[in-house]
Structures are given as structure tokens and as C-alpha cells.
Amino acid sequence: MFAIVPPYLLSRLAATDAPHLANAAEAARATLAIARPSHPAPARGRARLDLSVDGDALILQGEPAPDRVISDAQHRETLPGVRVRGEDDPAVADVAVNEAFDGLGASFELFWDAFARRSIDGAGGTLAASVHYGDRYDNAFWNGERMVFGDGDGEVFRGFTSSISVIGHELGHGVIEHGGGLEYQGQSGALNESVADVFGALTEQHRAGESAAEASWLIGAGIFTDAVQGVALRSMKAPGTAYDDDVLGKDPQPAHMRDYVRTSEDNGGVHINSGIPNKAFHLVATALGGHAWERAGRIWYLTVTQGAVPPTADFSAFAAATTAVAQREYGERSEEADAVRTAWNAVGVTARDEPSRSARSAEDRE
Asked: What is the pLDDT of residue 284?
């Protein structure tokens, strides 16, 4: 349903005839051919609470804890696979299982600590994941029920469980779904991808205790092998700079509406044009300083979980909604509201002094 590696990047890899990437090209073709299964709703989970007695009163104590279940697909395309680790089980010998387990926990911690949200559905739902999906599967995705991780082809992509930002991104799609959703097409689809990137970046930053100034703002750092000329799938700080590779091409993300890409591929460029709202969020977070999840992240979170935007929202509607939320939460003339207005202006979404928007085709950007 929602995959971290965009189809245009896999298509470039699938088309290469470079001898040293023959295995990767075959794996990319196989990955593109697999129809990802989707499910309508996640399972319900548990909240871990301790009981104590104060006089005649029964007191609930303790914070909610995640309920994680990791399964091994055993290189098949059938989900969920064999259960290999649950919440109370110790670490196992399989690195991918442990990485997935820890990554799900990091995402849970962000949403609870920053937004008091109990799991992806807000009600303590089980966090489920399957590892070792398919044969050299070059992707990771959220299918509406669970996270699914491929192992990569080993030549271009490594295993996807190693990236906290990838895990946070995909689980972020679940939060967006439960908040009302953003239609996965055109600008609303690009917003869906962008908000998921925001949650992915915040998960990684929260886990490391990084400030907005200290963070890399990279999505998918570490999933490329050393054979790739690039550092990540996307850069929120500098869209369009994450990779520039002889085989994969140059990162096509724009950072401003003047470079908005019109294309019929990738659901109307959802993975490409997400660079524009990504840059807007980065500008808000760095302008406010401190931990990005505390103010900038809270504004974005409230926008997508409290019905502030319709499923078909375009960039302008989302800009207006985040501005309204910032004004409501912090004041119309607050530092936070000013940072949001300034950021959307800087990327050309709400600027009145910019020339008329021009749109280049996907072919022009390659």
C-alpha cells in the first residue's frame, strides 16, 4: 500500500544493464511485479498498567507500553509468516527481527511521549511487523495492518529494518489513516508522504535526543550500499540532494513550488513533490529550535489527527490548516504561527510575491 522506495527509483534500477548490478536489476524487476497485500484495519492491542491500592481506591499507575509482534515471512510473499518475537520475549539471533522490534518501540515512544498517543490507532493497537519478505525484496511498506520489510538485493539496497526513519515513516502512514487519511494521489498524496516523512524524522530524532539543528533530516539513511552515490532516499533539509547516482539518477525532489513536477507516474508524483512540504516543515522546526517534535511536530500532528484537513487537501489547504492550528494552540501573533506562515511562504505555497508557478514534466527533471 505505502512503500518507502518510490517506483521511479526501482524502475531505473530495473532497467540497468550494468553487469555488476545484474542481481539488483533482477531484484528490482521482481519487487515491482509483486502486488503488495493490504488490510483495512490494524489489530487491537494492550496497555500495560500497574494496580495499587490507596485506602479504598484502586489506582491505575504506569505508562502505556507497546505490544509488539514480529513475524518471519521466510522469504515468501505470504503474510504474516511465523511469529518469532513478542513483547515479553528476549532478543533473538536474527538481527532483522531485533531491529524491527526496536524500531516499532521507538515509534511508539515518540507518539506517546510527544503526543500522548497510545500506538498507531491511538487505542493501544498491536504493533505488528513481518521481516524477510520475498526474495531480495527491495522495499518496506505499511499495508494497513503491519510493517513489512524486505532484505534488499545486497548490491544497491541493504535490509530495511536498520533505518529508524523508514520504520517511523511507514507507521506514520497508519497514524495518518486513523486521523482521517489523505488521498494517495497528486498533492494530497504528496502531503501523505511528507507527513509520514515528518513522523519518520521525528522518530529518529526522538530516539537520539537530537535537536532540530543537530538532526540530519535524512529519510532512509543507511539503506543504500556503498555502491550508490548517495546518503539516503530523501533529504527534508535539502530536497533534491539525497543521491546523484549513475544508475539511480539524481534525486528529483523539488524544494519550491516553482519546480513542482507534473507527472502521471508515482500517483501523480507523491514521492517527488513531497519535497516541498518537507522543506516547509524543516523550516518551521529549525526556526523554532529545540526538539522538533515539541512544537513543529505537535502542529503537524494535530493538523492530521483532529480533522483539520479533508482527504483531498492540496498544499494550500494544508498550509492554511497548519497555520490555523498554530494560531489556535499558540496565538495568532505567536512565534509558532509566524514560523508556519513564513515557511509556507518560503517554499512558494502561499507566497504572493512569487512569479506564476511553472511545472516541469518528470522527463525534464531526469
From this structure: 98
